[in-house]
Amino acid sequence: MNKLENLKIIIFDLDDTLIVEVAAVEAAFLATCELAHKKYGIDTENLYHTVKSHGRQLWNAFVDIEYCNNIGIGYWEGLWGNFIGDHHNLKFIRDRIPTYRYQVWYNALAEFQINDSIFVQKLVDLFGNELRQRLVLFPETESTLKQLSQNYSLALITNGISDLQHEKLEKTHLLAYFQHITISGEEGFGKPDPRIFKLTLDKLGISAENAVMVGDNLSRDIKGAQKIGIRGIWINRSRKTLSQDICIPDAQISSLIELLKLF
């Protein structure tokens, strides 16, 4: 991708683009399960996979899956989010989330013949604490944003519930870099829905040809943006094989620092 002479704004995804997410979630699960290993001798990896299985099963059984898919949230948010907001689905989840969290860990431990309600609640609380300690930026995130913000306006479009995404942004001190932040949980729809990209452009008064989207997910971030004419830059840290049946990004990078060469 050559330097865009008409580029005015760079839009970023948040999770696994600017902030470590998947690795942080996995590490938090393993750290929490390790406590059960120390107390009861349960294999850490086995419990980890058992918890994930029960998390998905119970989540799918009580939430409006279509709504959750629309805003891009999954069972792991249910294990640590507060689900603040006025949408009836958020209220529904918020009212039931303490029971959900307890039941996930209770059911997982029951498979190892453990019945300890006090310990279950300890694991519930520990997972959220462990994950919050792991809300960190990729090493190059802040320096890249600082340099890019000297010449371009920056915006953010992220899928997720409002309280968690704001917590991540505040803890990692990213808020000051963005002219506008769009969170799917506040709008009722998220990436790859073209509406969330258009909403951001409209809020900024920018046309699609003056914007570029940077994200780690080909389908949600890149294809979604390209649908309304925004160029898409795929950050492919793990150097996955490009799946051209999804979409072809306008550029591909393995580190955010490479954006400084593109622009």
UniProtKB/TrEMBL annotation:
Give a Pfam family name: HAD_2
Q: Does the keyword Transferase apply?
A: yes
For this protein, the record's InterPro entries field holds:
HAD-like_hydrolase (IPR051400), HAD-like_sf (IPR036412), HAD-SF_hydro_IA (IPR006439), HAD_2 (IPR041492), HAD_sf (IPR023214), PSP_YsaA (IPR044266)
Kind of enzyme, top EC level? hydrolase
UniProt keywords (A-Z) are: Amino-acid biosynthesis, Cobalt, Hydrolase, Kinase, Magnesium, Serine biosynthesis, Transferase
**Catalytic activity field:** O-phospho-D-serine + H2O = D-serine + phosphate; O-phospho-L-serine + H2O = L-serine + phosphate
UniProt key word Kinase: yes
Cofactor dependence is on:
Mg(2+); Co(2+)
Molecular function in Gene Ontology: hydrolase activity; kinase activity
Q: Give the pathway annotation.
A: Amino-acid biosynthesis; L-serine biosynthesis; L-serine from 3-phospho-D-glycerate: step 3/3
Q: What is its EC number?
A: 3.1.3.3
Purpose of the protein:
Catalyzes the last step of the phosphorylated serine biosynthetic pathway, i.e. dephosphorylation of O-phospho-L-serine to form L-serine.
Q: Which family does it belong to?
A: Belongs to the HAD-like hydrolase superfamily.
Name by which UniProt lists this protein: Phosphoserine phosphatase
Q: What is the lineage of its organism?
A: Bacteria, Bacillati, Cyanobacteriota, Cyanophyceae, Nostocales
